[in-house]
Design a protein that fits this description.
The complex is a heterodimer of chains A (289) and B (104). Chain A has 289 residues and is mainly α. Chain A contains nine helices and no strands. In chain B, helix 2 packs across helix 5. Chain B is globular, with a radius of gyration of 15 Å. Classes of the chains: A mainly alpha (289), B alpha+beta (104).
């Protein structure tokens, strides 16, 4: 098999897109033609499989980093949409739980919104932070690429879950809240969800290129060095984060609603939700082994 | 010089070659060999993944041209590529001075 044939086969095997493949083939064909003109008997290009592999690994790393950063941008826009809707709602006044179609629906909507937004924030930020932190590395290990993709996808799914919660809330209070707020919140959520779906598709495209580079994936303790002491004690990490967030939420709600009971309820919900999310997603996002 | 020894410096060497003017892959390989008096005899195929990587990073740009009936991709240094080259030069001066001090 010719050098070019072997090179093209390896690029195809590694899932390099047709456009990039064709461009490389044209460049290497030109290079080989130049060598022939110089009457070089042996090509100085090097081993075709190694060069194709190096290209695929660098491309996979770049696309993964880009996808993580694009997802972070899409999640940031979704967060702005959510905050804008909630700010307007707080200005006109929250409706009582029992005034809509079903109190159960409100609870589901709020749980989806509150939990989804926080999971999206954590996963999206961790994915983007890893992409930024490792931006100077030409190629990342395959395990690390997989970790960034998992964080990205959980972040997007959680962002979409937040959108679903908002839409459920809109549906529940469709006869109670002003039409302009329903339209504003519904359209902002639809727009944000569109961005997240586009980010999901971009991430799926970026997984087409296969890297087989060896090396560790790293974990959340590599991303956040001050927490390294807790690497061997995941339970302590949950307790530390859970208590910090729980106390903060309790204090904020107590101050805003003038009710310690409500503050404790919301703070307690945060601790339970955070522990459940850690159990569910901890291993996938590299927060525990 | 072994290709391994050039790892980590290839990007800076490519940028320095393009500082002289736009060039295609083969010409860059030739210029690297000529300017190093033949010391940089790396597998030339490794240049292309590096050029594509530099282009994705926005430090070089490229366009197709046709010469003697062959399609050819010509690379040029961008403004941020010029800045990156200056950074690489400064880093190299610091490193080579430090190594020289230790080895001397």
């Amino acid at each position: 098999m010719s050098w070019i044939g072997e090179f093209e086969d390896e690029l195809r095997r590694r899932g390099v897109r047709a456009g990039a493949r064709e461009r490389l083939i044209a460049e290497f064909s030109d290079h080989l033609a130049c060598e022939q003109e110089m009457r070089l008997e042996l090509t100085r290009l090097g081993a075709a499989r190694e060069i194709a592999g190096q290209y695929a690994e660098e491309l996979a790393s770049d696309e993964t980093r880009r996808s993580a950063l694009a997802t972070f941008a899409a999640l940031a826009l979704a967060a702005i949409a959510l905050i804008a809707g909630q700010a307007e709602l707080s200005r006109i006044g929250y409706p009582g739980y029992d005034r809509g179609a079903s109190p159960l629906l409100v609870l589901i909507a709020l749980a989806l919104t509150v939990v989804g937004a926080q999971v999206a924030l954590v996963c999206g930020t961790l994915a983007a932070w890893r992409a930024l932190r490792r931006r100077r590395e030409p190629s990342l290990p395959a395990a690390e690429i997989a970790l960034i993709h998992r964080r990205t996808r959980i972040g997007i799914a959680a962002g979409l879950m937040t959108g679903a919660g908002t839409l459920l809330y809109v549906f529940n209070f469709i006869d109670v809240l002003p039409a302009w707020w329903l339209a504003l919140s519904g359209s902002l959520t639809a727009l944000a969800s569109g961005g997240l779906v586009a980010a999901w598709r971009a991430d799926a495209r970026s997984t087409a290129t296969v890297s087989v580079a060896q090396g560790p994936a790293g974990d959340v303790f590599d991303d956040l060095p001050p927490l390294r002491g807790l690497r061997a004690h995941p339970l302590r990490l949950v307790m530390l984060v859970g208590l910090t967030v729980g106390v903060a939420v309790t204090a904020v709600v107590w101050h805003a609603e003038h009710s310690l009971i409500e503050g404790l309820e919301r703070g307690g919900f945060e601790v339970v939700a955070l522990t459940a999310c850690f159990a569910l997603f901890g291993r996938a996002i590299g927060a525990r082994r | 010089m072994r290709a391994e020894a050039l790892k980590g410096h290839l990007d800076g060497l490519i940028l320095a070659t393009l500082k002289v003017g736009p060039a295609h892959g083969y010409a860059i390989a030739q210029a690297l060999r000529a300017r190093s008096d033949g010391a940089f005899d790396l597998p030339e195929g490794t240049l292309y993944p590096a050029l594509h990587r530099l282009e994705r990073a926005g430090v070089v740009s490229s366009e197709w041209s046709t010469e003697a009936g062959r399609r050819r991709r010509t690379y040029s240094l961008t403004r941020s590529g010029g800045r990156m080259l200056e950074e690489r030069r400064s880093e190299w001066r610091l490193l080579s001075n430090a190594i020289e001090s230790v080895l001397a």
